[in-house]
Amino acid sequence: MATRANSVEHPTVIKVDPFLPADQQKGLHNRWHPDIPPFATVKPGQTFKVECVDWTGAQIGNNDTSDDIKNVDLTKVHNLSGPVAVEGAEPGDCLVVDILDVQPFDKMPWGYTGIFELANGGGLFAQEFQSRAAKAIWDFDGIYATSRHIPGVRFAGVTHPGLIGTAPSPELLAKWNEREGGLIAQHINAVPPVAFPPEPIGAYVGQDLPAPVREKVAREGARTIPGREHGGNCDIKNLSRGSRCYFPVFVKGANLSVGDLHFSQGDGEMSFCGAIEMAGIITFKCNIIKGGVEKFALRQPIFVPSPVDPVYSSKIIFEGLSVDIHGDGTQYNMDASVAYKQAALNAIAYLQKIGYTREQAYLLLSAAPIESHVGALVDSPNACVTLAIPTAIFDHDILPNPEGFPERSFGQCAIRSDGVV
Amino acid sequence: MATRANSVEHPTVIKVDPFLPADQQKGLHNRWHPDIPPFATVKPGQTFKVECVDWTGAQIGNNDTSDDIKNVDLTKVHNLSGPVAVEGAEPGDCLVVDILDVQPFDKMPWGYTGIFELANGGGLFAQEFQSRAAKAIWDFDGIYATSRHIPGVRFAGVTHPGLIGTAPSPELLAKWNEREGGLIAQHINAVPPVAFPPEPIGAYVGQDLPAPVREKVAREGARTIPGREHGGNCDIKNLSRGSRCYFPVFVKGANLSVGDLHFSQGDGEMSFCGAIEMAGIITFKCNIIKGGVEKFALRQPIFVPSPVDPVYSSKIIFEGLSVDIHGDGTQYNMDASVAYKQAALNAIAYLQKIGYTREQAYLLLSAAPIESHVGALVDSPNACVTLAIPTAIFDHDILPNPEGFPERSFGQCAIRSDGVV
Amino acid sequence: MATRANSVEHPTVIKVDPFLPADQQKGLHNRWHPDIPPFATVKPGQTFKVECVDWTGAQIGNNDTSDDIKNVDLTKVHNLSGPVAVEGAEPGDCLVVDILDVQPFDKMPWGYTGIFELANGGGLFAQEFQSRAAKAIWDFDGIYATSRHIPGVRFAGVTHPGLIGTAPSPELLAKWNEREGGLIAQHINAVPPVAFPPEPIGAYVGQDLPAPVREKVAREGARTIPGREHGGNCDIKNLSRGSRCYFPVFVKGANLSVGDLHFSQGDGEMSFCGAIEMAGIITFKCNIIKGGVEKFALRQPIFVPSPVDPVYSSKIIFEGLSVDIHGDGTQYNMDASVAYKQAALNAIAYLQKIGYTREQAYLLLSAAPIESHVGALVDSPNACVTLAIPTAIFDHDILPNPEGFPERSFGQCAIRSDGVV
Amino acid sequence: MATRANSVEHPTVIKVDPFLPADQQKGLHNRWHPDIPPFATVKPGQTFKVECVDWTGAQIGNNDTSDDIKNVDLTKVHNLSGPVAVEGAEPGDCLVVDILDVQPFDKMPWGYTGIFELANGGGLFAQEFQSRAAKAIWDFDGIYATSRHIPGVRFAGVTHPGLIGTAPSPELLAKWNEREGGLIAQHINAVPPVAFPPEPIGAYVGQDLPAPVREKVAREGARTIPGREHGGNCDIKNLSRGSRCYFPVFVKGANLSVGDLHFSQGDGEMSFCGAIEMAGIITFKCNIIKGGVEKFALRQPIFVPSPVDPVYSSKIIFEGLSVDIHGDGTQYNMDASVAYKQAALNAIAYLQKIGYTREQAYLLLSAAPIESHVGALVDSPNACVTLAIPTAIFDHDILPNPEGFPERSFGQCAIRSDGVV
Description:
The structure is a homotetramer. By secondary structure, chain A is an alpha+beta fold. Chain A folds into 2 domains: about 10-305, Jelly Rolls (Sandwich), CATH 2.60.120; about 315-410, Endonuclease I-creI. Helix content of chain A is about 15%, strand content about 30%. In chain A, strands 2, 3, 5, 7, 8, 9, 10, 11, 12, 13, 15, 16 and 22 form a 13-stranded mixed beta sheet that branches. In chain A, strand 8 (about 135-140) and strand 9 form a beta hairpin. In chain A, helix 6 (about 335-355) packs across helix 7. The longest helix of chain A has 19 residues, at about 335-355. Chain A is globular. In chain A, about 65% of the residues are buried. The mean pLDDT of chain A is about 95. Chains in contact: A-B, A-C, A-D, B-C, B-D, C-D. The interface between A and B is large, with 102 and 101 residues.
């Protein structure tokens, strides 16, 4: 037949089953370490696909209670697909990664957003809200997400990998462990912890490795929680399908790993597992710029965003300053994190006036295409951060109404089976 | 004549001369205090104009050295036009302010961006760079700005007031002074200072006031440097012409003041006087929503952005984390301010590879329509902030080039007459 | 003073009074002819301003009847400011024109949109609607327009010159007159006419000219109604402030003329005087590319649009085909004009369901930032054209509502004093 | 497993093999007729998928000659998937169709754009160019398309169905046949034909039907070439994934059919098969608004566009008027089709200056996300149409360069094996 000839599917270099626990599958790993060998190798310029489980490795279900969130095992996260080596890449090069598409599995057209318990995961307002597990399940209808747990909203996904990075060199890994260890030492009893040291329990590499290598990886391997110089868990929503990213290369082959796919996320991803978490398939093309680290002063990834990121031009924008006006009124010194939190709290208070619960509002701001800008970081002592909610994602008008908002209830998100919120 | 009938110009309720020192003019003030009476009164729904001097009150000149920046008198800032009372506004109401236009004066088609001395103003990188005064003059050609001090760029202005707010109540003013005083007490010898207590020297109200009132304002009046609950110096570039803003009202009449007009600004406005500062004319319409503070949980201003903000879809984006990789490598704990700084330093390093000096890059990122998003504030311990430079503002290609960038010089910005940088 | 030094206003090379009849003023003309000498001369790279009367030259008033529209003298239009010669421009060059800003006069903050009588001006639906004069007056509040004659809408202007062009050479003028004369000869009794031959009555050049030159211009000068190879009355809304245009040069100096300023316009400008017509000030910068006609195959102007054109992402879009389904059902052959008209009639019918009158809808689609795309011009026999209305310009929801629209009236636009519609 | 429970894939109600001739497959048809029974039935609110072959039904191959285009059998087009009945839909209702996604088959990651022979398909410039078959094959890399036949460009697809519509009633079908028959009668010897009457040869319905029904459909069924009141082959690129469309319903069940999927298309789709044609999968959700035809004056489909259509803000725009300046100079009367053609010819001439062949330019303008606006349809006798090329789809700068463009060749597209162009 005319159309069959030369119809060649792009190869999938890592295949997974999104319904199986991650630690039963090949091509996955959940720690960063230079000694994890490449699971697959690709040539520059080749289009290829990588399948990913959701970040927890199939721990969270499509149901109406949050008990699975409450009891999630965080020693096992994030489950990454890789490493994928790119032929010819060497330390000091720049790895150009085209994120060509990010899609959920056809057989799993849903994802979730979670508020984690204060003592198991936490989140931006874990302390303020004394967080209890809560959850929203999102159904995927093509490019859109809706949730039975947060009625009245529908938005287009800005699908992206929450976590993508090249492998660290031994030196870089050592630096990470040292500096984060120092921070932990300063905040020894923090709940939730300020950082996570290497943790052999739950460590996993889905390859046949000699026991000493496996043990070394488990003992030394950096946790995947934070983003670092190699990329990692940056949770940047605009590192989305269609973007082109430039990574520094630290080891031969670059050894790219990816996971924590998101169907959507708001800037900040505030509720810890704030994005719409999903399993899915990412399509890549990689190229190499020799010596790119020096050419571009490439200390961390840079990227060019996608032309298909959703555009919602009508927005309502909240401001926040580095004064804890929602708490005890403390004056902070040019602290953009505090300012972001105040902007978010202003937005949550507003959404509550409309009729959403605090938990629904928190989940929605985490998951929807919220934009948060650093307004000003100059006017001592008050940093100013803004947070914008697109109005067109609602099926009702949310702009300030001179009459005030009508009394309305949108129910509640999924909460713990014991009813504690 | 047919067109003359019913042609009624919008009234200008405050007129100033941008060439005269602010403290020689009526309708200006440079402290926040509830006892400053309204200089003008408008009706709800009326379109009116307010003229503004530049924030320094005519201290900075269109020339090629930065000595005026070095020696600027900061006790006299910001020079605000107002207050303007809106008939019928009462505490607890929401003042809806349409920012209908923001234009420079025809007779002063230029503005400036400055790096201030470490010891006189400072700025985001005052310590890191041991800042010395530097400056770029921008010429306004209609909607565009260009600078002889930063060749090769041209961009459309997102004209806006850096500073706009309603007058505080006595209680609110007292709260400000208390909490900022506390912070100052904690950082008693900071250079630059972390905050600014009331300062009688330089205090100015351009109205005929009884001496006791004038003295009270000078003694108690809050400095205009930071943004606060009433708005104030938020320096949000998207609070621009065409936006609709909702302010809480704290005193009878609302008593709106405005100043610090900007022709353009990047998110963050990093170099202290980082926007393109200008004198000019702002056009307003105000309306009142009774009881709006309660109706909308209005703790701080909210706003709806403008449909005419410049759109540059092609961008290059830099990441930053809360690790001081450009300095001593310190690991911070979820600090978005540090992350913003690292993203900015990554961008500055990149622009230096292209051929701009550090000072030019610093000024450019402050003044051009840079977008900075809070990427993630969830992945302990690393906050992630991004900073995006639109590529189309350059007349040359700034995307990563596999060959690296050609050697090129763009000269230098205006520096001190003693040559110290 | 610091700010006064080197503050140089951009020069205004043509000044007019928008309240005076055009034929009493200097620097205006209303015919195209190579023998009209330049009224002003500028250097390449110089920023300058040109003032313009409205296209009718002060014939239309800010009032509530359309009698002035009914009786307008169209022999006197369009009143253009110019010509402005650019030093060094020669035939075959490309004149690069930066349209840096377009603003109404402060003293005339209003404009108008008109439906013209079938027999005096006409318009796209002159025959279908047996058009009678009608009008909407628009008030300018900074970047926004609203109309007491079409309540419930507010939109940002995409300010632009409806008419801008370089002077024709004698050969080009002769070609215009010949080809348009031929068309007129084919449709000798058309009402409204299909084209307009040279017309000495009403011809005007606001310069001291020898009588023979003046008479020649009046006798031969091309009417300004249509756009042609030199630009002219193209009425392209996106040739707006911030755009950069490339014109072919036909005579020494290029001799640029401009007029017919619009505060806003919809694609198509259907109701003849469909834009929001205004008097105002346009800011330019011109440069020359030698031999640009050959370098860029420049048979007509090309342009790069502005980054500040208003963005309204939410729209409702109507389709039209080249079948006259709103009339007698005639099947046309790939006729995009018919398709555009059907799309517009579909939109008008929809707006009438919402509660606007046919005349209000016709005026609104002409004046608001409507987008009309040529969908397909390939599927014989039906061309397909779309017409998009931004939803955010309404203060009420206009998307299809399952319940249908509530009964509502928006009054009527300005009509004739005899009440005939 | 936690993630497996309640993971329910959206059903695919019509499945096809893109590699098999369409007339060997079930669920396809290529004529419009009310007697074609629904092949599948869905409930309102249900998300479902429909698979589609390419419009020719597997006639065109991924190779480097255009012989398959030259010899294509057009009696067999378009091959549509359907009809799909929606429970409860009745004549007079409005069928709300959410186009939730449009994707190519994984196993067929490519598409094609063709110039058809003058005598077999034609196209907008068939006469002007005396068109010979030519072709570009496009490779799909996630959201992007590139072509070995048109080097130097890459763009994001605006994936959409070229053809989608509800079934006609007997009355509507009769009207179509009558009016198009009349046009054919007026242009009896036109090459290519102006319209296409019912044609039994090649007619196909992939269902078990009684012979009389099958024969009636073949004898009376409307060809699928043009768009009509029910939608049909409108080839509107923005009827894309993420859009919501409102169709009038003419028969019980609405009987929706879809096909002619496009990966991308320029406004106008000028070269007949100008879009990037593909086989693929479309995801839908349908709802019903009772009596919607009356409620919304719904004579033809209306739609709300998608938030994920690609955004390219930087463009170069060409103008065209209704004067055939590229041909014999004929003056047309307000003819937007002529104006569109002139704008396209101006753009083609420009692209040839850059180094593309005429055929490459023609294919590129047809396939890439070109925007064409009806600028003005008011300035007798010259309609004005614009055509905008996004600059960021090129990997080289295409803006006018004062030096002119460097000599450069981009090869040629696929042409006939006999070398005739």
